[in-house]
Design goal:
single chain, 455 residues, mainly alpha, Tetracycline Repressor, domain 2, 3 domains, three-stranded mixed beta sheet
Length: 455
Amino acid sequence: MPQHTLPGERRTEPTGSLEDLLTEHQYTAAAAWLNEHAAHVIADELARIPPDTAAVAFRMLAKDDALEVFEELEPGDQQALLEGVRGPRFSELVEGMDPDDRARMLREVPAKVAKRVLAGLSTSERQMTAALLGYPDGSVGHYMTPEVVALAEDLSVAAALEVVRAKGGEAETVYTLPVVNSSRRLRGVAELRELVLSDPTAMVSDLVSTAPTYMFATDPAEDAARLMSEANLLNLPIVDSEKRLVGMLTFDDAIEVLEEAESEDVARQAGSAPWEGHYMAVGVLRLARTRAVWLSLLLLAATLTVGVTQAFEETLAQVAALALFIPMLIGAGGNAGAQAATACVRAIAVGEIRMSDLGRVIWREARVGFLLGTMLAVLGLGIGAVFVDIPIAVVVGISLILICAWAATIGGTMPLLARKVGIDPAVVSAPMVTTLVDATGLVIYFVTARLVLGI
C-alpha cells in the first residue's frame, strides 16, 4: 500500500524509473516501487509514461490504492487509463470515485468513453453524476459534491451526532454540516467541532451561523473558490435558485479550481492557448499548436512597428544615431507594460479591483510609470552621453519617461476593459500589451526627437 506523506514531512520522490522496470519486465521491482511511493507521486509517474505501460502499472495496484491514484490524475490521463482497464476492475474504479471527480473526468472525455463510464455505474451514482453534468460549464455545480450530511434544524446535538455517525461514511466531508429546514432550504451551518464540544441536550438551531456564506450552483466555480480563500472556509454550501441545499464545495476541489484557473491565466499571459494534461506527456505537435496561433497573431500585430519605422524613415535618415536606442526604448516600454498588465490581471482575479476602479487604476499606473520612467531616464541620459551627443541623450531620457508612463497606463487598463466586453483579461496581458506599446512607443520617440532636435 502506498505510504502517505504526513504533515511537515518531505514528499518522497521516485528513486528509479517505473517505466524502465516495466519495460524490462521487472514486475516484482515495479510492485515494490509502487508500494514505496505515495499516490500523488505514482500518479505523476503514470502521467509521464505511455498509456499502455501506465495501464500495466495501474493494474498492479490494490483496489483502494488504485482509486486514490486514479483521482490524482488529470482527466485526460484518466481517460487513457480507462481505455486499458476492462471488466469488473473498470466498474469498481468508476463506482468508487466521488461524484464530483467523476463528473469532472466525464466533461473531458469523448462521448463513447463517457457512455461506457455511465453504463458501469449503479443507479444512484449515475443519477448524482448526471445531475452534476447538467450544470453550466465552469459553474460550481460541476465541482461540488452532492454527498453531504445535512442536519435538520430541530435536532438536538446528541441526535445530530447520531446522524453524522450514520451518514458520515458516505459523505466526502463532515467538518462543515449544513442545517436545513423541512424543505431542505439552507438555514445555516454548524461545525462538527461545535457539536462535539456542546451540551448533548442543546439544540442545533442554537449553534447555527444565522448568516451562512453560500453560492448558487450556477455561479462560476472560480468565484466560489476565491470566496472560500478570502473567507477561510473549509467547505462552502451550494444551493439552487430557491436556496435549497444541493451540495458542498470542498477545499480540495476549490484548490483544483484555482489551479486550473491559474494554469489557464499563465498560458494566456504567455501568449499561448491552455492545454490539459501533464506537460511531459503532451505531444510536441499539440504544444506547438497551442502556441502557433498566438505567435502568428503577435507577428502580424508587430507589423505596426514596421509601419511606424517606415513612416519616420526621413527622421532616421537625418539622425541615424536615433536607431541605436530603438531596441532599448521599446524593450523598456514593453517590460513596464507587461508588469502593469500582470499586476492588474492578478488583482482582477482575486477581486481587488473592478470596473468602477478604472479611473483610479489609470491615475495610479500613470504615476507608477512616470516614476519608473524618470529612474530609467537618468540611466538613459548617461548611456546616451557615452555613445552619442547630449541632445540625443535628452531625447532618449524624455522618451523613456513618456513611454513608461504610457505603457504602465495601457498595461493596467487593458485587462479591465477586456473584462468589461467579456474577454478574459489574461488574453490581453503581457504579449499583446508589449506589442501595442512597441508601436506606440516608437511614435512617442520619433515625435519627441522631432520636437527636441527640430528636424
